[in-house]
Design a protein that fits this description.
The chain has a domain at about 1-80 and about 135-175: Gyrase A, domain 2 (2-Layer Sandwich), CATH 3.30.1360. Helices cover about 45% and strands about 15% of the residues. It has 7 helices and 4 strands. The chain has helices at about 10-25, 30-45, 65-70, 100-120, 125, 145-155, 160-175; strands at about 1-10, 55-65, 75-80, 135-145. The relative contact order is 0.21.
């Protein structure tokens, strides 16, 4: 799977820091003073000020298993590839099943059956019923920084499913390229819980 940050609020740290200054009627002058205030507010759990920064990701070749975990985070906007109008072309398996011959045979058989249904004239929207949850699709997700932090807490957890952890780790790597403060307390392979 691939994850790409498509768009984000310009200067997300400073925007949120300026909003924090408004919220607390603080007269912070320098960038460092403002970012220090933002850090303190995040540590205290007053995260409403960071809802004003948003991040939009393209996630490609994610399984329906992982995408269903992703869309459970309701304070976000999603657009997912329509398998009603497009054709399923690929699947992914977790490491525990990648070398299992029976699993590969079964999934490949379902894809072949799906293809044969389409060739017989069955609508893609109906043929997709036989596809396994391993089928991949592409999606775009937009989350504000507060929801993204919550998402990172839950989905970077070592108990989270492998594929959603991988997606989440890549999302974290992408946002860390454009923000210094908002996600600095998240480490690679975060194991908070």
């Amino acid at each position: 799977m691939d994850v790409k940050l498509l768009s984000y609020t310009p200067n997300p740290d400073l925007l949120c820091a300026d909003i924090a200054c408004i919220c607390y009627q603080s007269k912070k002058e320098t960038e460092e003073e403002k970012l220090s205030l933002l850090r303190n507010i995040i540590k205290k759990g007053h995260e409403s000020v960071i809802e004003h920064a948003s991040f939009t990701f393209l996630i490609e070749k994610i399984s329906r298993v992982a995408s269903h975990q992703l869309v459970r985070h309701r304070i976000a906007s999603y657009t997912q590839q329509s398998l009603r109008y497009t054709k399923a072309t690929d699947y992914t398996l977790p490491e525990s099943l990648k070398d299992d011959f029976q699993t590969k045979f079964y999934v490949n058989s379902l894809f072949s059956f799906y293809q044969s249904l389409i060739e017989k004239g069955v609508k893609k929207e109906d043929a997709r019923y036989v596809l396994p949850n391993a089928v991949t699709s592409d999606l775009v997700v937009t989350m504000n920084a507060r929801e993204l932090r919550h998402f990172f807490i839950l989905r970077l957890d070592k108990r989270a499913q492998e594929e959603i952890r991988q997606v989440t780790q890549k999302m974290l790597e992408e946002v860390k390229k454009v923000t210094k403060v908002l996600f600095e307390d998240f480490e690679e392979e975060d194991e908070r819980n």
